Amino acid sequence: MGWGFNEGGGGVVDNPNMELVFIYGPPVVGKLTVARELERSTGFPVFHNHLVVDAVAPVFPFGSKPFAELREAMWLSVIGRAAVEGLEGLIFTFAPEHTVERGFADRLQRVVGNAGGRVLFVELVCPEPEIERRICDDSRAAFGKLQSVEIYRQARDSGAFESHVLPRDGTAIDTSELSPAEAALEIAGRLQRARGV
Q: 0.85 exceeded by the pTM?
């Protein structure tokens, strides 16, 4: 990939302890909001998945083969470079959906692991009525996120948000029961336990 690392190994290990906090869940569960709260408490920067989606989508249609390949290559390049450049940690938000290539989580773990780091997978969930209540929030417009209940229902019912099973480190966090700050505190606790602190 040209960044001094590759999926198969041989990367330069500058920081053997980089932590990637991989926050995932369906639309509107609060991934970015929780990630920003976690950034405040840990100092880890947030790499929001829409940044790459927004970079690739003007050139290739969403879900097309070049779109999916470039999106994954960019995700892995940024995260892998962070690992070899000595970042203590990074927070990545991810929305599982059917256009993501099978095995993405395994490839990501290899890239981070080859640079001496590790991945903490955190699933966020929320009841459907709350998702539908939140979906029209004006804050979602900033990243061109889905804001229509009708379109959300059509996409959900067609299986658009289904993806390959991602690993879990602990139980899912229900963001209808915890505030973003409380959810971030729960994740920070999991991070400490993973580090043996």
A: no
